[in-house]
Structure formats: C-alpha cells, structure tokens
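2024-03-11 09:14:02 INFO worker-7 job=invfold-0412 stage=load source=structure_tokens
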C-alpha cells in the first residue's frame, strides 16, 4: 500500500500553468504530498505569489512555453529524475465559430494548448525512458469531447490533446510510461473566455445555462490530476477522464 499522504516523496513533477487555477492547485497538492515540484508559468508575478504562499519543495521557471528556450530551462531545472509531467497551461479562444476565426487566435491557441504540450512532453520523455517509469497528465476539456463548449480553435486544440495523449500512451505504455487526460467542465479559475461572436452567444448561450453542472473548484481537478500522476493509477494509461460533475453524461 502507498502512504496516501506522501505519494510523491522523493519524486520530481513538472506542472505547467502552475501560477494559477488548476495548475496552482496541482502544485499545492503535490508539494503537500512530499513531491519536489517544478512550476512553470508565463507570469512571474503569479509564480512569486505561489512560492510566497505555498510551502514545500517548489522551484519555479518563468517563461512562455511556446518558446523552446523555456522548455529547455524547465528540463534543466527538473534535473536527471523526472517522475511526472502535468501539462496544465492553456488558453481559451473567444468562442469564434469557424467563419470568424482570426489567424492570430488560431495560431496562439494551437501553439499554447497543443504545440507547447508536445514539445515539453518530447523533451521530458528521454528522462522517463531512461528510468522506464513516468506519468504524464494532459489537461483537456469537455470541449475535447463535443463541439458545443467553446469556439472552434479551442475545441480543435482540446480534441488534439486527446489524440496526442492516446498516441503517446499507445507508444510508451509498454515502456513503463503512462499518459492520460483530465477533462474538466467549468472550473473557477482566472482563465479568460470572452464571447467575441454574436452567433456563438446565440448558439451556445442557452446550452451553457441549461446543460452544464455547477462550477468546480481547482482542488477537485488537482485531486484527479495527482491521482493519475501517482502509483495509485499504475494501471491507467490512455484514459480521458471527465472531471466535470457529470457534463459528459448529458
Ligand atoms: N477553467 C475552466 O473552466 C476550464 C475548463 C476546461 C478546461 N480547462 C483547462 O484547464 C487548464 C488550466 O486552466 P485554468 O482554468 O486553471 O486557467 P488559468 O488561466 O487560471 O491558469 C492557466 C495558467 O497557465 C499560464 N499560461 C498560459 N499560457 C502560458 C504559456 N504560453 N506559457 C506558460 N504558462 C502559460 C497562465 O499564466 C495561468 O497562470 C487549461 O488547459 C484549460 O484549457 C479549464
């Protein structure tokens, strides 16, 4: 049996988006359970308040994860042993339907939500392969399960998170590395999600009012992410775990 209060003792876990919301709650939970955490965020201010307010072994890297140099620094700071990676950082679109997508929005959403996740995972895998062990958790979304939860760019990016994660699980599970997705519904965080499309407001607005469950707290997502990172989920790989209060069942 693992000691459930110290599941990450002696382990190093990287958390992206660690400065706020779901990422920050994940950092807190990992540190509380004895882990050494490398928290990455584009906002140095958020990382500063993280280290001021959260105890435990937390080191930070400030930088934009779409920049290869940030990825390199994260792996360097993490060191030779990397037991877990939680790709949490992500951004929303402005609920743009396809005909209203600006290239800039599409490119930024795909760069942060998909390409940065791929690059950091690619950079971390050699360390995990050396150890024949590791757990990767990518944060998807209910928007990765359906077409009616966001704009087209974000919806596309979160479907890509699912495909990326299942392909990674397929290739590396036989080598001791697990890869899973946690797919949240609405969560009380600082993520910005402005309606920039009148048609989307008309089309999605009524669904958001009637179909989706209550807004969750980031700690509820951190519980699922850390479960998948831990040995408690040792036989789980390639899963897309809806942590959405039942939205996926609607
Ligand atoms: N909040 C929700 O309702 C919700 C629902 C479904 C999925 N999600 C997903 O959960 C994840 C976390 O979002 P959150 O709600 O906690 O948002 P958040 O904005 O509170 O936290 C995200 C953090 O990521 C950081 N970040 C953004 N772009 C970055 C970059 N390029 N490089 C480094 N750091 C970057 C931000 O500075 C921020 O601190 C995202 O992937 C999001 O898509 C959130």
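2024-03-11 09:14:09 INFO worker-7 stage=emit residues=250
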């Amino acid at each position: 049996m693992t000691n459930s209060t110290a599941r990450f003792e002696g382990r190093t876990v990287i958390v992206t988006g660690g400065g706020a919301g779901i990422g920050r709650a994940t950092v807190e939970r990992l540190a509380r359970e004895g882990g050494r955490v490398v928290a990455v965020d584009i906002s140095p201010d958020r990382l500063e308040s993280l280290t001021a307010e959260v105890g435990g072994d937390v080191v930070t890297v400030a930088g934009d994860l779409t920049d290869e140099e940030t990825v390199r620094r994260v792996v360097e700071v993490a060191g030779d042993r990397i037991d877990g990676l939680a790709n949490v950082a992500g951004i929303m679109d402005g609920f743009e339907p396809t005909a209203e997508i600006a290239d800039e929005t599409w490119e930024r959403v795909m760069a942060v939500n998909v390409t940065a996740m791929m690059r950091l995972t690619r950079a971390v895998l050699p360390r995990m392969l050396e150890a024949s062990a590791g757990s990767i958790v990518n944060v998807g979304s209910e928007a990765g399960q359906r077409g009616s939860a966001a704009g087209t760019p974000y919806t596309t990016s979160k479907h890509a998170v699912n495909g990326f994660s299942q392909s990674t699980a397929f290739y590396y599970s036989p080598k001791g590395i697990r890869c899973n997705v946690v797919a949240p519904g609405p969560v009380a965080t600082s993520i910005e999600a402005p309606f920039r499309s009148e048609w989307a407001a008309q089309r999605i607005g009524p669904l958001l009012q009637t179909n989706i469950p209550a807004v969750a707290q980031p700690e509820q997502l951190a519980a699922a992410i850390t479960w998948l990172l831990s040995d408690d989920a040792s036989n789980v790989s390639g899963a897309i775990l809806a942590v959405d209060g039942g939205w996926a069942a609607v």
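2024-03-11 09:14:09 INFO worker-7 stage=report msg="DSSP finds seven helices and seven strands in the chain."
2024-03-11 09:14:10 INFO worker-7 job finished
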